[in-house]
Predict the 3D structure of the following.
Amino acid sequence: MLIDVREDYERTAYNIGGIHIPIGELIARMNEIPKDKELVLYCEKGIRSVIAIQRLESSGFHNLINLAGGMKAWKEAL
């Protein structure tokens, strides 16, 4: 399952799907994130998604993967 932690304007410009929860809303919206699925978090460069993973891990999530390099690297790989 994909989780996009970018801001609205970034997602509007380009996205690969998944649940959209901006990093600033992550803690308040944690109940929307399943704990029983493998989760791939992504942002533009992979920095905010690492921070999001750290926050989720401290709240009991253990099924987290960072999209290394974020959307920038993903687009360059196409």
Observations:
- The longest strand covers residues 39-42.
- Residues 1-33+48-63 form one domain.
- The chain has three helices and four strands.
- The helical segments are 8-13, 47-57, 70-77.
